């Protein structure tokens, strides 16, 4: 008897649950929905293009399109540096199709990026939608060799090995922080050559140090080094440049004085004259 009553109760609860779910679903159907519409589609946006690569033969490098061009006639245009401001007409857009093309070869050292704005308008000139930015980043190639300025420094004679003399830094117009502008340094010659190089250079930092404690100003007071820089971190195929470094050896007090005899010295003697003082009379 109790089992039967319990089963009926469970059935009643199940029916109530199903009824509640049906009412909830009906309420959701009657609730107005907020729809999100993508106002404009950008097809194949070129976020990155290589410098020195000819893209002028491509049909397009990007495409802008308003979804309203299915119901009205829409015209497209571009604005910004590279479009309607210098370099003018580097990027152009077909006003009817929205195809974006390029008319020249990019140079990252001149313009590392382009911030363009796509515009869609009706025939009467009113804007179809808000303007949308199109950014094109120019990728770097290793097309610039390092270059050196003229460097001069000095160090005291008899300085210990590893004494810091100076640091040289080659300039490279390729993108900073990449392998294209990473320079490896070396010393390729020294004047006077002597018995070997008197200095060393750190290949990564360009810091020049004394090699051994044998610098002697009285023997040689000036050295000229020819240094070489190779980008790509010194790897094969890196571009190279050379520069001149002049190092003056400074004097320290390391020599005893020497008296030099320039001519024969003669001692001339003369008789001693004595002068008698008159005696006082007492």
Q: Care to describe what's here?
A:
The chain is mainly beta and 282 residues long. The chain has one helix at residues 2-30; strands at residues 40-43, 48-50, 62-66, 74-79, 91-93, 99-102, 113-122, 132-139, 151-156, 164-167, 184-191, 199-201, 207-210, 222-230, 240-250. The chain is elongated, with a radius of gyration of 44 Å. The termini are far apart. Mean pLDDT is 84; it is low at 1-5 and 31-38.
State the shape.
Answer: elongated
Strand arrangement across the biggest beta sheet: 1-3-6-5
| C-alpha end-to-end distance | 178 Å
Helicity range: 10-25%
Write the layout of secondary structure elements.
Layout: H1 2-30, E1 40-43, E2 48-50, E3 62-66, E4 74-79, E5 91-93, E6 99-102, E7 113-122, E8 132-139, E9 151-156, E10 164-167, E11 184-191, E12 199-201, E13 207-210, E14 222-230, E15 240-250
Give structural attributes.
four-stranded antiparallel sheet, four-stranded mixed sheet, 282 residues, 1 helix, mainly beta, 10% helix, single chain, disordered N terminus
Quick recap:
This protein has 282 residues and is mostly beta strands. The chain has one helix spanning 2-30, and strands at residues 40-43, 48-50, 62-66, 74-79, 91-93, 99-102, 113-122, 132-139, 151-156, 164-167, 184-191, 199-201, 207-210, 222-230, 240-250.
